[in-house]
What we know:
The protein is of the alpha+beta class. The protein has helices at 29-36, 92-100, 109-122, 128-134, 146-161; strands spanning 8-14, 17-23, 55-58, 61-64, 77-79.
Amino acid sequence: MANKQSRQIVRLDVNGATHEVAVRPQDTLALALRDGCGLTGTKIGCDLGTCGCCTVLANGRPILACLTLALEAEGQQLETIEGLTGAERLHPVQQAFATCGGSQCGYCTPGFVMTSVALLRRNEAPTRDEIKSAIAGNLCRCTGYAKIVEAVETAAADMRNA
């Protein structure tokens, strides 16, 4: 008979709503968001913390949800890609990724978007080098990053002009 691990309830504040999720001690935040909260925009790419696909914001800072235990996230204000979209329009970063062609297959896009949002919240006019530095932890296997950097520059300009 398989050894069933006990679960405990963790309260996660995600996108302004509280979710109670039953997790095992080793369950990652990425799994809790996807399976427990139904927020599948957070992708699991490498499950090793090397690709950035699982990037979410915790208290406004980008974190890797595949390396963060769900239990560690309790008490933090979490924001996922689903929290950016308004009822009527995309977040300026999402819109810029669409307009500039910053997405290829799209799998890595939520991580890039969340990292870019965090950057633009703390620096409304980043240089190209600052953008490249901010997104260095996110990997895309489909593109050469030029359109991703262009999308962040476009979003920054759009947000300043709004």
